[in-house]
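Researcher: Good morning. I'm working through a list of sequences from a screen, and I'd like to move beyond sequence-only analysis. For each chain I'm collecting a predicted structure so we can compare shapes side by side. This is the next one on the list. No need for commentary yet; just the structure.
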Amino acid sequence: MGNVASPPSDSMSPQERAEFGARHPDNFINAIRSIEEFPKTQLPSLEQLLQDNLAVLSRFLGDGSFVRELEPSLYIYEMICQDHSQKGIVAEVPVADYHAGTIRGHEDTRAEHEEHLFQYLNVVGATSSPICAAYRSKPRIDEIVSEITFGAPLLDFTDDYGVRQKVWRVSNRQVCGDLEELFGQISKLYVTDGHHRVASGIRHADRRSDDSNSDGPWNYLLMALFPMDQMRILPFNRCIRDIGDLSAEKMLDSLSNIFIIEECHRDSLNNDGPQNRGEFILLFDNRCYRLNIPADCIPNHPVESLDVSLLQSLVLEPLLNIRDPRSDPRLDYVTGELGLDGLRQRAESGWRLSFACYPPSFEELVAVADAGLRMPPKSTCFDPKARSGIFVRTC
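Model: Good morning. Structure tokens for this chain:
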């Protein structure tokens, strides 16, 4: 356990990550660098990059930045952001639970990112970013967590993003046994952040199992498990750089064939964005519109009925010819904590129009995961996110 926690990786661009690491040489972000952070003229080989990451991690492990826990323990991990707080259990979860269907995801992974994390595990041999997952709350677990967190934390600090991080160690064998028994009664864990870490961890476990018949840390995933009712889902809003040959008049006319449209004064809108499912806020040419899709136009399908799916299928692809939401350079995403102000900032920097979306609910996420389906890219934004570098586990 250490005190060099890095900021959430998806809150910064690769260039911003590199600049942050340069300004903070003792931050854990320097032990998890990626190829994207380097200018094209200075690209290291993947092997050299991983060796550099290993050297930084070895320095941290040897200079007192971390305390090695010799006894098996569980940890309570709390994140406090403004008026929001969530407390979870950090533990090793067997890879076998994934194969048994207990650990369920709702997002696809990108092959190149998964491969990088797989090689990181092979070369650096450590995992430092807990995979976050949600479970349906159990009152007894809540009671035990509350009792433990009444005492003084082992670690307590506020990070660079204003999120307070608190950790309690649970070493009492009876309490650990009670928590393990209670979690054994939970049939499903829903991944909220870390789909690539799950995929690469499974591959790493398979490779190590081929090399050895013995059990080892590679057969477990480092996870932070939070009750659903404490987690906060924010939207990923969409902004579009240009509308091609489509005129503004034609754009609004086409939207009126799909949505019920109401022009609004910006001061009348909640900065958080839409307040209901099926509602979008459109910022276009310094004007604001509330768009509502009629309920009878929403299909009865776990994925196709999602607001972000409807936006893609009814607007972005047919009207703006944005067919691949992962790679089209005209499309970008703004996380929901920035609200409409974040979209207005994009407009000031040249982005032509933006759609603020309503976030999926946990029940929608569960329906998608239980059906073995996948949400579109950037469907959910869980905030706050677990930090890298608080917990490090060699594997």
